[in-house]
Amino acid sequence: MAYSVIFRFYGHLNDLVPEPFRARAHRIDIKARRSVKDAVEGFGIPHVEVARLRVNGEDVGWERVLERDERVDVYPPSLSLVPEDGATLWTRPPEPVLFVADVHLGRLAHYLRMLGFDTVYETPDPGDPQLLATALKEDRVLLSQDRHLLMHGSLQHGCLLRSRDPIEQMKELIARYGLARTARPFSRCMECNTVLTKPEPTLLDQLPDKVQERYRNKPEALRYCPTCARAYWPGSHWDRMIGYLREWGVALS
Ligand SMILES: [Zn+2]
């Protein structure tokens, strides 16, 4: 029995739906009785991108079956769009937020680590089952641009990045998870995710002459990765990073 229902999407969900549905209510034909979950996923929207569903103005769960001419309002995880009093399908991950990024998001993973966020990122590609298992077992937010990966039913925390630009992707994450508040810039190794430590006194001797000169009297400004033996120091590389922090609204503590 074919019938039609009306869908209205809010906020950044409009990035994900076909043009006739963007920012306005639009009718869609449904071939057989379907749950809200099936209908929303039919738009290619993973469940982790939805915080609240309302049918005819009432909060519903994913399994609610749609009837003829009903109106469905679909809200993204955004504090301004999801009133606190409503039944929320989306749970905020514990803070500080932990991430696992798929193989295509290497630069984003590096930027997250630069801000101090524990981010699992592996090459070669560990594969979808491994990414999902890591997200579930360690309560991490799975980051991807693959809608099908994020539609996996067991996934609790996930984020579908919209932009292809890693700088813009950081802005998306900072807005959704309030990362500017909990960031600890330059506290974690960008290459291997290990928390940086203060260097051993002998480290200075292994660094380029210019760096040795500059930090001879203030070695405490250096940071060291005990896993991959990299040294980090304020310099031209950091200046560029500090420019990014400003753009993202993250304070250098
Ligand atoms: Zn390292």
Secondary-structure map:
Layout: E1 3-9, E2 26-30, H1 36-42, E3 52-55, E4 58-59, E5 71-75, E6 99-101, H2 106-114, E7 119-120, H3 128-137, E8 141-144, H4 147-150, E9 158-160, H5 166-177, H6 179-182, H7 209-215, E10 223-224, E11 231-232, H8 236-248
Helix pairs in contact: 2-5
Bound molecules: zinc ion (ZN).
Residues 189, 191-192, 194, 225, 227-228, 230 line the site of zinc ion.
Helix percent band: 25-40%
Per the principal axes of the C-alpha atoms, what is the gross shape?
Answer: elongated
Kindly report the oligomeric state of this protein.
single chain
Poorly predicted sequence stretches spanning 5 or more consecutive residues? none
Order of helices and strands: EEHEEEEHEHEHEHHHEEH
What number of structural domains do the residues give? 3
Instruction: Write out the strand line-up for the largest beta sheet, numbering strands in chain order.
Output: 2-1-5-3-4
Instruction: Identify the bound ligands.
Output: zinc ion
Report the biggest beta sheet as strand number plus sense, adding barrel if it closes.
5 strands, mixed
Beta-strand share of residues: 15-25%
Which class do the helix and strand fractions yield? Answer: alpha/beta
Radius of gyration: 22 Å
What is the rounded distance between the termini? Answer: 61 Å
Q: Could you tell me the mean pLDDT?
A: 91
H/I helix tally: 8
- Secondary structure tally: strands: 11
